Amino acid sequence: MSEQHTIKLGMSIALTGPAQGIGKQLYDGALLHFNAINNEGGIAGRRIELIVMDDGYEPNRTVHNTRQFIYTHNVDVLFGFMGTPTTAAIRPLLEHSKVPLLMPFTGADFLHQEPKFHVFNLRASYRDEANEHIKFLIAEKEHQNIALLIQADEFGITVEKSLTQALARQGLKPTVISRFKRNSNDVEKAHEQIKETSATAVIMIGTYEPLATFIRLANNAKLGLEFTSVSFVSSKELFARLEPGQAVMVTEVVPDPNTCQAKLCKQFRRRVKAHSELKIDHILFEGYLNAVVFSRAAKQCKADYSQQCLLNNLPNVLEHDSDLKTLFGLTTQQKKLPVYRSYSP
User: Fold this and answer.
1) What is the DSSP letter of 329?
2) Residues in Cβ contact with 78 at an 8 Å cutoff, skipping those fewer than 6 apart
3) What is the mean pLDDT of residues 94-105?
4) Which of 28, 53, 108, 186 could lock 84 by a disulfide, CB 3.0 to 4.6 Å apart?
5) Rounded distance, CA 184 to CA 210, Å?
6) Distance of CA 155 to CAs 57, 85, 241, Å?
7) Residue 169 pLDDT
8) What is the pTM of this model?
9) Angle, to 10 degrees, between the axis of helix 263-273 and the axis of helix 282-300?
C-alpha cells in the first residue's frame, strides 16, 4: 500500500529493561485493535502502521526515537508514549514540530494544564489518582502516618507533589519521603529510612520490580505496613511478584477488563482469547482502548483524513461515542475520566 494510503503512528516505549512488561502490554494491546481495523480494510482505505521503538524507559533514548519518528519516518502522530520523564524530555520536539502526542501512558500535570503542544489524554491525571490514595488510606483505613517511596525523577516528583497536596488538605504531611533511582532495584536505603519512622502505610511510586523488592524487605523486617501504588506500576506485574496474601491497593485508569460488562470489554476479551500469547490485564486493555479511540476519531474524518481533523474529533469521540461513555460511566454532566482500584489477590 502506498505511503499516502497509510496512517503512521510512532510509539516509543520500554521493550527492554526492568519496565519492559509495561511497554509490551501497551504495544500488544494497541496492536490487537489496529490489526483488526487493518483486516477490515483500514480507515477509509488507509492502513494504520504502528512503528514501535524501544527506549528502555530512558529519556535520552526517547528523544532519539522521537527525532526518528518525526524527521525520518514522517509519522502522522506520536502515540502511546510511556512514562513521565520520557515524555517530559520530548517537550521541545513537540512544541517545535507540532506533531500531536496522543494517549501518553502518564498522568503528569504538564500534559493536563494547557501545554504548548498538541496532546490528547485518555487517562485520569496523577492528581486524581493521588486523591484516591489519600481517600483509601485516611478515610477508609484510618492511617495518619503515611510514608512516600518515590522514584527519583520527573515521574516521582509529579506524583509526590499531588500526594503532598492531598495530604495537606487533610492536615497531614508525609512521615518521610524516601527516594530510589529509576530503572534500579536499589531501595535498601529507602527501606532503612522508612523503617526508622512511625509510618503505618507507604504510597509507592515506581515500577514493579523495585516496589516488589521494597515490599519484600518491609515484610522480612515485620514492619506491618500497608501498601498502595499508582496505575503506572502495572498491577499484574507487581502482584505476580508478591507473596500470596500480600495486600496492596493499586489505582487504575480503566475498568477491570476481566469483569467489566461494557461492549468494549467483551470485544476485548474475545479478541485476547484468540491470541494464546496474550494475558488480560489493565495495561493491555488501556493500550487497546488507546487504539479504539484513535481509530474511531480517524474514521470520523472519512476520506478527508488530516491531522487537524483527527485532533478535532478526539474529544468528540470521548464525549459522544456511546460505547466509550458506557465504559467509563460518563454523562453529559460528568465528563471527567474516573479512577478505579485493583487489590492484590
Assistant:
1) T
2) 9, 10, 11, 12, 66, 69, 70, 90, 94, 99, 100, 101, 102
3) 97
4) 108
5) 7
6) 11, 6, 22
7) 97
8) 0.95
9) 110
CA 261/CA 26 separation, integer angstroms: 22
Q: Give pLDDT tens digits for 316-336.
A: 998 899 999 999 988 766 678
E strand or H helix at 282? helix 282-300
User: Is the CB of residue 15 less than 8 Å from the CB of residue 54?
Assistant: yes
Helix (H, G, I), strand (E, B) or coil at 127: helix
Contact 230, 252 (CB under 8 A): no
How far is it, in rounded angstroms, from Cα 95 to Cα 62?
A: 16
Q: Copy the grid coordinates of residue 188.
A: 535498601
37 falls in which pLDDT band (50, 70, 90)?
Answer: very high
Q: How many residues appear in the chain?
A: 345
Sheet holding 6-13, edge to edge: 47-54, 6-13, 77-79, 101-102, 119-120
Among 26, 33, 32, CA closest to 11? 26
State the amino acid at position 76 in one-letter form: D
Angle at 85 between CA 107 and CA 200, to 5 degrees: 65
Q: Using an 8 Å Cβ cutoff, are 206 and 251 in contact?
A: no
pLDDT in tens, 4-24: 579 999 999 999 999 999 999
CA-to-CA distance for 271 and 32, rounded, in angstroms?
7
